[in-house]
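== Folding task for one protein ==

=== Format: two labelled lines per protein ===

==== Paired sequence and structure tokens ====
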Amino acid sequence: MRRVVLTGGVATGKSYVLEQFAALGVPTSDADQLAHTTYAPNGPAWLAVRQRFGAGIFDEKGLVDRRALGSLIFADERARSALNAIVHPHVRIAITDWFANLEPDPAVPFGIVAIPLFYEIPRTEVYDRVIVTACREEAQLARVMARGLTEHEAKQRIAAQLSTTEKVHRADYAIWTDDTHAETARRVVEIFRTLGEELADPRETGDR
């Protein structure tokens, strides 16, 4: 199975796009969900996160208060780097194992993993194609604030990632999500068909 990455800034539509690919029969995985698993109770990063950030970000069941953790790491670049250093090695292993266990399928010769920080975190893995989700800056800010964050908090989260312009420039395909869900879904189908044709050919390798 060929390896495809879906990336994009916060609140640019990654979850919806990933759902649309899954509905087309593409195997999908989500690095954010894998990350949450690593610092869940009994997860491989749970103890290290607790030792680094303290018991105050955990509830009585030992679960991380993600709002509290987010407020901490987006206000402190060193804390954000420390969390990434703890969690991302485990996430990389999980992603590698996930791809390795996919059953070959001539009809859909690729799987897609959503990795929000694909361009921000150093990596050694090679992917065949990169898709980025994108939207206008004002739409992104409004979407982040709709999650219950202040304008300041929303801007912190957006600024912590590479700009949408740069991600679109680096990626193989861009899916703009400013329009309707129907238009976004149409673009997903278009890319799905193109990838199916490109990646069915074993000579079409990538280094991304």
